[in-house]
Write a structure and sequence with these properties.
Blueprint (H helix, E strand, L loop, with lengths): L1 H5 L4 H13 L2 H8 L3 H15 L4 E3 L4 E3 L1 H23 L7 E7 L1 H8 L3 H7 L3 E7 L12 E6 L6 E14 L2 H7 L14 E2 L3 H9 L12 E2 L2 H9 L5 E4 H9 L12 E12 L6 H10 L9
Parallel strand pairs: 3-4, 3-5, 7-8
Antiparallel strand pairs: 1-2, 5-10, 6-9, 6-10
């Protein structure tokens, strides 16, 4: 009996294997488990040594399962998902159910925050947990779903389209008046602002060419809220999704200097869930809820 027990892998090794397999990456698995990449590699090596089988093909681009790895994943995936679900819902009140989501700050502020109290009031058995991430996906253990901005393709995730946005140039009323912006050619004489890189403006300019505009002179910031604040402060012209600046426009803090020049962005918001993982009832309720929010007028 003792020899049989010593041949049983540690649960931490199997959990690590599951994370690497589902993420297709040692790096993402390390982030999800909050371990170093070296620790992840050591656990996988010990598991392969114990099982006398290679579980992954390793190359510079992606980690892929071998046939032995695929067989093992089929055996351990469902039991671990069940354990995680049980632990997540374990609470003094047995009727309570946890809902763990990941969203981006600007979507959370503009779209979710005003409506979340209504959802929780209608679903009082749900205990809500949330993490905010910008421009990357964590999807830590126990997460039910994430709402992220992107092109619709994430490895190891099912992506359900949620909403797209029309992008407009925006600026403060004072900036528009000071620089007399009334035609697209006027953008060549002002500073334009960017989020992360030049890609949004480059995409917009494909549909509305502007001779002489210089993207290189504009400030680059890392997040939409900062971009909007720079525009409100009169620093320059930003390119923003209309739903995200709608309240600023209503309050008069921002204006659309060229309201007829919009572009439907090639990216959109998506609801991400793990492939081959059964959704909890609370996750299904939340997905139904977010599909009803006001941003859906831009579907």
């Amino acid at each position: 009996m003792r020899s049989d027990i010593t041949r049983i892998p540690q649960l931490s090794w199997l959990l690590t294997f599951k994370c690497v397999a589902e993420n297709g990456s040692f790096t993402f698995a390390a982030r999800e488990l909050r371990l170093t990449q070296s620790a992840i590699s050591q656990r996988i090596a010990k598991l392969e040594d114990l099982l006398k089988a290679q579980l992954f093909f390793r190359n510079s681009k992606k980690v892929e399962l071998t046939e032995s790895g695929k067989m093992l994943l089929e055996q351990v995936q469902a039991p671990f998902d069940q354990i995680i679900e049980v632990l997540k819902n374990y609470h003094q009140n047995p009727t309570s159910k946890y809902l763990i989501i990941e969203t981006e700050p600007v979507w959370n502020r503009v779209i979710l925050s005003p409506e979340l109290p209504s959802f929780l009031a209608q679903n009082q058995d749900i205990i809500f947990r949330q993490t905010l991430t910008t421009h990357h996906l964590d999807f830590s253990i126990g997460t039910d779903l994430a709402i992220k901005w992107g092109e619709g393709s994430w490895d190891e995730f099912d992506a359900q389209f949620l909403s797209s946005m029309d992008y407009y140039p925006v600026c403060s009323p004072e900036f528009m008046k000071r620089h007399d912006i009334s035609e697209i050619s006027d953008l060549a004489n002002v500073k334009v602002l960017h989020e992360r890189d030049y890609s949004d403006w480059n995409y917009w300019l494909k549909y509305h060419p502007c001779e002489g505009i210089n993207l290189n002179t504009g400030h680059i910031v890392g997040e939409s809220d900062i971009l909007m604040q720079l525009a409100i402060a009169g620093i320059g012209v930003a390119l923003c999704g209309y739903p995200l600046v709608r309240e600023y426009i209503k309050s008069g803090q921002l204006v659309l200097p060229l309201p007829h020049l919009k572009v439907r962005h090639n990216k959109a918001y998506y609801i991400l869930t793990k492939k081959n993982r059964k959704l909890s009832e609370q996750a299904k309720s939340f997905i139904h809820f977010v599909n009803s929010l006001t941003l859906n007028e831009y579907k």
